[in-house]
Design the sequence.
């Protein structure tokens, strides 16, 4: 139970989610590029990436002095779900900006 709580509290933070989504968007990428995209310090991004790697969501590969990161299969799965959630929340926000008038209508069950 405690491990699940740790995972949940970790993922309720902003940076891990954004790192997964940014890596999903770019494929093989550099921590420095993620740092720039998220306007965060390089050292902070590296610490979060290390935690994501410990969780088995990201893998890193060194080529010379350059370190690349990619999503593992589990990381791709999590990023896919996060991306879907992100799109749903954006649609909700757009709907709220339009006064909620364009919300999806659910089918009404007719009674006989």
Sequence:
């Amino acid at each position: 139970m405690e491990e699940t709580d740790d995972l949940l509290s970790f993922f309720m933070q902003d940076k891990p989610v954004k790192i997964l989504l940014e890596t999903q968007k770019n494929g093989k990428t550099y921590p420095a590029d993620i740092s720039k995209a998220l306007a965060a310090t390089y050292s902070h991004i590296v610490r979060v990436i290390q935690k994501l790697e410990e969780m088995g969501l990201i893998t890193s590969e060194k080529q010379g002095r350059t370190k690349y990161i990619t999503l593992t299969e589990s990381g791709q799965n999590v990023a896919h779900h996060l991306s879907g959630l992100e799109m749903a929340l954006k649609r909700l926000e757009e709907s709220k900006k339009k006064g909620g008038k364009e919300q999806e209508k659910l089918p009404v069950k007719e009674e006989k």
Summary: The CA atoms of residues 21 and 83 lie 7 Å apart. The chain has a mean pLDDT of 83.
